[in-house]
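Ops channel
N.P.: pipeline sanity check, posting one input/output pair.
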């Protein structure tokens, strides 16, 4: 699954797709499409997810197994 990590992170926080979609200001259907990999996640949404989960976009995309976020720019 392309975006399995965002599903796992959501489930770890005991959030429904609907609740996370509300947080991201999108519909549950669109968010569900993100988790299934039916559509690519827009850059802004990936950044918002990384901040929300306190991780990096690279981790969300499976480019690294390091869950800790990179230092934030000032």
């Amino acid at each position: 699954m392309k975006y399995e990590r965002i599903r796992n992170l959501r489930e770890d926080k005991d959030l429904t797709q609907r609740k996370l979609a509300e947080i991201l200001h999108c519909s549950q259907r669109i968010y569900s499409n993100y988790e299934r990999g039916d559509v690519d996640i827009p850059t802004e949404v990936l950044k918002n997810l990384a901040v929300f989960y306190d991780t990096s976009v690279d981790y969300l995309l499976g480019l690294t197994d390091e869950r800790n976020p990179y230092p934030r720019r000032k």
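N.P.: looks fine end to end. The chain has a mean pLDDT of 92.
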